[in-house]
Amino acid sequence: MLRIILQWLGVAIILVSIGGWWLLDGYGCAFNTSGCARLLPRLTREVVKVLTIPIGLGLLLIVLARRKS
Fold first, then answer.
1. Contact indicator for 38, 29 with CB cutoff of 8 Å
2. What Rg do the C-alpha atoms of the chain give, in angstroms?
3. How many CB atoms within 10 Å of residue 58?
4. Overall number of domains in the chain
5. 3-class secondary structure per residue, 7-61
6. Burial letters for 28-57: b for 16+ Cβ neighbours within 10 Å, e otherwise?
7. For position 39, what pLDDT does the model report?
8. pLDDT above 70: residue 46
9. How confident is the model at residue 62 (pLDDT cuts 50, 70, 90)?
10. CA atoms of 11 and 18, how far apart (whole Å)
11. pLDDT by residue (tens digit) across 16-40?
12. How many angstroms separate the CA atoms of 68 and 66, rounded?
């Protein structure tokens, strides 16, 4: 049961971090006075730096939950 919880927690961390990035990038795009026609958010170097920790943590939780011991 603990393994299932850890695995879903890892998935949730990854999805929330990517979803938050998507919403925050869209929020900035919505207040652009010249408009914005893109659908996908921009993947910049700063975004990669910020998302590395939560995605790494989520992947670590998934791997630990799936490991046989």
1. yes
2. 16
3. 21
4. 1
5. HHHHHHHHHHHHHHHHHHHHHHHHCCCCCCCCCCCCCCHHHHHHHHHHHHHHHHH
6. eeeeeeeeeeeeebeeeeeeeeebeebbee
7. 66
8. yes
9. very high
10. 11
11. 999 988 888 777 666 766 667 666 7
12. 6
* CB burial of residue 10 (10 Å; 0-12, 13-18, 19+): buried
Q: What is the rounded distance in angstroms from the CA atom of residue 69 to the CA atom of residue 63?
A: 12
Among the listed residues 67, 48, 69, 47, the one whose alpha carbon sits nearest the alpha carbon of residue 59: 67
DSSP 67: -
Range of the structural domain that residue 30 is part of: 2-66
pLDDT, tens digit, 9 for 90 and up, residues 2-20: 899 999 999 999 999 999 8
CA dist 56 and 64 (Å) reads 12
